[in-house]
Amino acid sequence: MSNEATTVQAAQATEETTGTESPPRGLGVSLPAADTRAKTEGTFPYAADLWAEGLLWAAVLRSPHPHARIASIDTTHAREMPGVHAVVTHEDVPGTPVYERGRSDRPLFASDVVRHHGEAIAAVAADHPDTARMAAAAVIVEYEVLDPVIDPEQAFEAEPLHPDGNLIRHIPLRHGDPDAAGDLVVEGLYRIGRQDPAPIGAEAGLAVPRPDGGVELYLASTDPHGDRDAAAAAFGLEPDRVKVVVTGVPGATADREDQSFQLPLGLLALKTGCPVKLTATREESFLGHAHRHPTLLRYRHHADAEGRLVKVEAQILLDAGAYADTSSDALAAAVAFACGPYVVPNAFIEGWAVRTNNPPSGHMRGEGALQVCAAYEAQMDKLAKKLGLDPAEVRMRNVMATGDVLPTGQTVTCPAPVAELLEAVRDHPLPPLPKDTPEDEWLLPGGPEGAGEPGAVRRGVGYGLGMVHMLGGEGADEVSTATVKVQDGVATVLCAAVETGQGFTTLARQIVQEILGVDEVRVAPVDTDQPAAGAGSRSRHTWVSGGAVERAAKMVRTQLLQPLAHKFGMSAELLQITDGRITSYDGVLSTPVTEALQGKELWATAQCRPHPTEPLDASGQGDAYVGMSFCAIRAVVDVDIEIGSVRVVELAVAQDVGRVLNPAQLAARIEAGVTQGVGAALTENLRTPRGLVRHPDLTGYALPTALDAPDIEIVKLVEERDVVAPFGAKAVSAVPVVTSPAAIAAAVRAATGRPVNRLPIRPQAAVVTGGRDRPVRSTD
């Protein structure tokens, strides 16, 4: 490591997590996170806090146009400004000029054409952040402005926006009898808006050149090895000459660090020979990273006279924005789960992901699944209304269970207790009406001192059933490696699984405590000198990285027990570790683990690789996913039918979790996911008129606040273990994000009688003409 980064390494060392809590310990207890104190005291080292000797500051020039041809780029004035050390454009990229995690089609810097508002054109390194920003603004770019393609439906006929064309992927799913028809048919057209990850801390990072001509990148990365490989390709270096060190991640609900921020850093560090740091403004953050796919959905449901589904037909169009990113994966999930957790004997789904000149779309929690959930649940409400059935009842007649078959032809082999989840939220007591608790009368839609009138408020109850896949899919090699070392009674876990707030470091400590019976467990900081563990998305680290830690810990356990077993003439399988003691089945042996470990140094490395999956074939068929998780939510809302404002009163949640590994952590993940879904349902919509990002800040982009967060009642957690998953646990954070917007929309429909076919729900969609003549505060 270079001398310049010594300060960085010292700061990073404080991220090492330790656990010294006394029993209870191990799996199934609410072990607190080791970094809680540092975060609450403000001493936790995030990427924006890093510093190194001789530091320069970076700024990126971004396109003001969504679509334009670049006639020329003049960096002369920027280079001549005092304090400027380097200016780089596409001409300075020594290696592969394009990058992407999903598909390599996105340039590091635009060269001939800009394809979206905010695309990177050039980057500057200077001795002060203000100088860097002024120098970036001094780069003169002559544009020939072109008409942007902003409507994804127009992308099919428009001129190609990219050498690879406008169509990224088309999936025509065919399942069952195309001539099947039901006694009843309901149709709908639905639109889902562009949700932004809106990370708590904007993107930041530090690049430090190495004496060997390589570079070290200190980033809040969620996929350090993927980022390293992309950086090495762009810099024209071998991967072993690029090192990514993961700094504190201030929360992640998507790919945390977009490479349009981090790759210019490394390029500038290599060019100047100095450490270079970038801390993005909130506007730059909005312009630079990917968002949830805006989606257009057309549905037609066929059902028999009893309300049982006969056939589902759908068209799903994802707006990928300018580049492919992970759109292929998102489309596969949307098509595979287009019918939801329901038994559908015949399904015919057409799915497309297309390029436009809108901002790039990419990975966010429940990508693809959230969009279709909002649509198919709206269809179930329409079906219930047409049949005169309770919305919960029509769902109950169609829910899937273990052994049922998805429209992709994949059999659901994991636990699928969907009926049990729906029953739990349906039977949970409803919250009282405000007239029964007059002290809460001020809690009107619109908040305290809001414009609403109590007489115009109506209450609605709605249901949502959602499902997501766990891990990647369609043949992705989901593998992780972990090492567990024990010395002097202290265990250390080395695994490149990034702690993004999902609780992996806490889980790793609990696993080792459970298996080895030690109290003190440390989880080492993450960098790319460790074997790869993959990206921190789709709750995969709980499964693959947790599984790798479990296997390595069990190998160490065997190393510990075998000598003792041999000494007493028995098999190691007859020994167990409980409450910090090693005991034999007959009680002859009973010794503290700390005593048995004294003077020993034990270690083992293991991998976890789930069973393989396969890509969807030409008709959308295939065993594409390792497993699935399910959720049911009942939403209760109050709607002011005159001004269209909505208050979510309560969300009752029942979820299929496999096994509870950390009760407090699990509840926090569910509550956070539900709240993110509230944002998607009511407030979060990054507006892009004519392809231009409008109000790229946290004033114009409305995140839910504490006043918007409803009461969240976790009414049931179904612990039916998934036998193919380590510990039997399932992903918990994505499926409530997917389900809560659909449930909220259903409740608004119940309160207003309006169709509510767009997310987020606009006020005009909840206004009822002549509503004062209708019963107030109905709970229909």
TrEMBL record:
Q: Give the range the annotation lists for the signal sequence.
A: none
Q: From what superkingdom does this record's organism come? A: Bacteria
| Annotated Aldehyde oxidase/xanthine dehydrogenase a/b hammerhead domain residues | 41-147
A Pfam family matched in the record: MoCoBD_1
Q: Which SUPFAM superfamilies match?
A: CO dehydrogenase molybdoprotein N-domain-like, Molybdenum cofactor-binding domain
User: Low complexity: which segments have biased composition?
Assistant: 1-21
Disordered: annotated segments: 1-31
Q: What is this protein called?
A: Molybdopterin-dependent oxidoreductase
Q: What organism is recorded for this protein? A: Streptomyces hirsutus
